[in-house]
Amino acid sequence: MTNKTILVVDNEEYIQEVAKICLETVAGWKVLTASSGKEGISKAEIVKPDAILLDVMMPDMDGLATFEKLQNNPATKSIPVILLTAKIQASDRRRYAQLGMKAAIAKPFNPLELASQVATALGWSL
């Protein structure tokens, strides 16, 4: 198990908790959480996580706007981003890939498979 840090950005506390427990338990990764795009960006600048799991549907600043700000920031541009989304048709996947996202994981996700989905998307071993 590698010492990776993952930032989970989701406005739903329940999703944050489930993701945190799963990724820490299954993969042994350190997991930080943020409840909004703005909070996620500021944590990403400070912590420089190895990857970000980003919810698409959030109030104020949605996941796509958050991703755009992360990409335009030299401090966070190189951090891989995986979207967590309920909208995941093939056309959405293509659009997300064109924007530069590593993957999109459908919500609701299977908690026991989340770590392997993240690892596979990023080319990490568990």
UniProtKB/TrEMBL annotation:
SUPFAM superfamilies: CheY-like. Residues 5-122 form the Response regulatory domain. Keywords: Phosphoprotein. The modification 4-aspartylphosphate is found at D55. Pfam families: Response_reg (PF00072). One of its GO terms (biological process) is phosphorelay signal transduction system. It comes from the Bacteria. PANTHER family: CHEY SUBFAMILY, STRESS RESPONSE REGULATOR PROTEIN 1. This is Response regulator. It comes from Chlorogloeopsis fritschii PCC 6912. The lineage of its organism: Bacteria, Bacillati, Cyanobacteriota, Cyanophyceae, Nostocales.
